[in-house]
Amino acid sequence: MLLDAEKHQKQFSIIYIDIDNFKFVNDKYGHEIGDELLKAISAKFNYLIAIALKRNDMPFVYRLSGDEFIIMLPEYDNDSASQVCNKILKLFTNGFNFERGHFAVTASLGLASYPQDGSSITQLISNADLAMYQAKNTGKNRLAHYSNELAKNDRQLKEIEFLLKEINPEAELSLNYMPVIDHADNVKGCEALLRWHSPQIGPVSPAVFIPIAEETGVFEMIDLWVIEQSFKDYPQLQSILGEQLQVSINISSAEVHSDNFIHKLKTLCHQYGITPGDFVLEITETFAMEQSSDAIQWLERLRQLGFKIAIDDFGTGYTSLMQMVDYPVDIIKFDKQLVERITQTERRHLAKALIDLCHIQSIQVVAEGIETSEQSRCLWQADCDIQQGFLIAKPMPIDTLKQWLEEHRYLERVV
Ligand code: C2E
Ligand code: MG
Ligand code: MG
């Protein structure tokens, strides 16, 4: 096809397809049903493509491996190939049905076209694959086109991945602290927030590099560095912000189940003479959703060491509060988006109800992302325990905490 296109200056397109949630079918119904589903999907692809191309002189649908397919569309440009892609997606409206039943699978599609998206087959397939990943990452069950923008992002991510593996923590990592207050405006604690300044590419946000660190396995080294650094900083933090200070540390969700992590944590506590009760370990809601009994046991072990456990970013996932309050946690942190929603006038009654529900289960509520005094007032009225947000303080290096505290106390007196 490539030779023909080169010779006669024609276009063609490649669709890369990955079936979403296919593993679920194998796990739940067994491999035999999984195989049959793949055959049924292939048959529908073949049928659809034969009609679209009006030719069957050679195969156009290929199975690469597992649940991955490639479809070749000779003489199709990007636009006409998109239309075929939409028809493929339609096969999966409401899942996929065939004589063995109804299966909740969908498809993620990536599209690359010759000549603009590549001049060799390897390049075109790999670019269609990259686009397919984009479709997966933006919510599955959709089509994504390959583009230079996509390739640029991918190169950046790969560079971050590479630089993370080579990281020199002492020279490149640092911690900022973000103070939090109670209703009486006392500083109750602070959250340790990691900063990475790469000598090659400058500052990189933790929201960008933490997920990459989790995928590539360097998160444990980073988490342990953060823990050790905040243990080292604790006496100084106490001397500035108060004896009763609680320091919150974010733990990668990839850490869950790790015995090694618990072991290292214990060692560091001994080494720095730390009382675990002075620290809160924050785990994101997405992890908590897994709800496996293993994960619960792992959290229980951390609690038995004396650490407090907080569920971070509550409100961004799809966990119900009822599930959450059954979890072995001490603190729930309402995410910025949730805070915005429940402080809107017509939803205020919700704030109080949500917080009461947590209190009944002896769970403390921290509201994050407080940016306006209106939000702050509304949540204090609803009995929220702790507030954190730019209204109170931004994350800052340890050296500037003292100055912040003086200004904060001054403002408190004059307002
Ligand atoms: P997070 O744990 O939910 O941390 C709060 C994030 O929200 C911080 O961003 C903070 O600067 C920001 N924030 C707090 N209040 C406000 C506000 O009022 N307005 C706005 N616009 N933003 C606010 P940051 O420091 O960029 O951290 C992003 C995320 O990266 C964290 O979310 C956490 O999930 C992760 N992270 C940060 N440090 C670490 C770390 O040491 N280890 C691990 N595993 N993850 C970390
Ligand atoms: Mg956090
Ligand atoms: Mg948070």
Defining key terms:
eight-stranded mixed barrel; alpha/beta; five-stranded mixed β-sheet; binds ligand C2E; TIM Barrel; 415 residues; Alpha-Beta Plaits; binds magnesium ion; 49% helix; 2 domains
User: Whole-Å distance between the termini?
Assistant: 74 Å
Question: Radius of gyration, Cα only, in angstroms?
Answer: 26 Å
Structure summary, number of beta strands: 16
Bound molecules: ligand C2E, magnesium ion
Q: What is the CATH class name of the largest domain? A: Alpha Beta
What is the CATH architecture term of the largest domain? Alpha-Beta Barrel
Low-confidence stretches: none
In CATH terms, what is the fold-level topology of the largest domain?
TIM Barrel
Q: Give the name of the CATH superfamily of the largest domain.
A: EAL domain
- Total domains, how many? 2
The averaged pLDDT comes out at 93
Give me the side-by-side strand order of the main sheet: 8-9-11-12-13-14-15-16
- SS class: alpha/beta
The description of the largest β-sheet is: 8 strands, mixed, barrel
Overall shape: it is elongated
Q: Tell me the strand percentage band.
A: 15-25%
